[in-house]
Design goal:
The protein folds into two domains: 101 residues; 155 residues, Thrombin, subunit H (Beta Barrel), CATH 2.40.10.340. Helix content is 35%, strand content 28%. The chain contains two helices and twelve strands; from the N terminus they run ααββββββββββββ. The strands form two sheets. It has a six-stranded antiparallel β-barrel. A six-stranded antiparallel barrel has the order 6-7-8-11-10-9. It is elongated, with a radius of gyration of 43 Å. The model has no long low-confidence stretch (mean pLDDT 76).
């Protein structure tokens, strides 16, 4: 071992001292020429494996980045949805609060805001449940409205919730007046959810586009002047004593979210 170390030191000493044309330099050049192809070949042979390794590394890196970006997209979508929901709720609530300044309602303190929390799944029984009840001052038969018009009336109350029967229900009847003109009738729902103005005198002039509002007659639970619907079609038959007036409800019940309960 010691002899090999001494021999190596001797060769290094001679190599660095001899000229470039010396024997040891010649041996180095010959060795380099012999080994160069081998090194080049081995490098070429290893290159595909090195490329594959780099590709696998890049793939895992890309997957990790893709996962992070997907999570960021989900987070942003949730944030946008939350923001849009908040804006929509604020707009609805602002419009409901504006009802307190409506001259139809005498006392702003007699209105209770509520949110629709469920609806009937039965087509022939049009009701919704709101998140305000007797603890909030809601009572049976209180009128329920929103910014569009008459929603219905309270027909069942618990401490923290109430059932509202809509004007589209077959058991809903509202004494009403056509404006302009003052023609009287009764707004009634139906099994199919259609709304009609009944008991309109056959000689009375009613035309599509006219407004139908609550009459506010003595004994009626609804204040006068709440929009119920708009005349869509008028049916007259000689054999009938009354004409039937088809209405489009003022309220879009498919989008009903927030309401006001009017305390009587």
């Amino acid at each position: 071992m010691v002899a090999l170390v001494i021999l190596s030191l001797a060769l290094f000493t001679v190599f660095f001292r001899e000229p470039a044309s010396g024997v040891l330099h010649g041996v180095q050049d010959v060795g380099a020429r012999i080994l160069a192809p081998l090194q080049s070949g081995s490098a070429k042979a290893i290159q595909p494996f090195r490329d594959a390794w780099n590709w696998v590394g890049d793939l895992f890196g890309a997957k990790s980045e893709n996962k992070r970006l997907r999570a960021e997209v989900v987070r942003l979508r949730r944030a946008v949805a939350s923001e849009l929901t908040t804006r929509s709720e604020n707009e609805h609530l602002r419009q409901l609060l504006d009802l307190r300044d409506d001259p139809v309602f005498n006392d702003a303190s007699d209105m209770i805001p509520a949110r629709v929390i469920s609806g009937s799944t039965e087509v022939w029984y049009s009701t919704v449940t709101i998140n305000a009840g007797s603890a909030d001052g809601v009572q049976l038969f209180d009128p329920v409205i929103n910014e569009e018009g008459l929603v219905g009336r309270v027909t069942d109350v618990t401490a923290n919730a109430a059932q509202v029967t809509l004007v589209t229900d077959q058991e809903s009847f509202v004494d009403a007046v056509v404006q302009p003109g003052g023609v009287r009738g009764v707004v009634a729902g139906s099994v199919r959810g259609d709304v009609n103005l009944l008991y309109v005198d056959k000689t009375a002039k009613v035309e599509p586009g006219q407004f139908v509002v609550t009459s506010g007659r003595n004994g009626s639970i609804f204040p006068r002047g709440i929009l119920v619907g708009i005349v869509e079609n008028v049916g007259r038959q000689d054999v009938e004593l009354h004409q039937t007036v088809a209405l489009r409800p003022a309220v879009d019940f498919r989008k009903l979210e927030y309401v006001m309960v009017v305390k009587r």
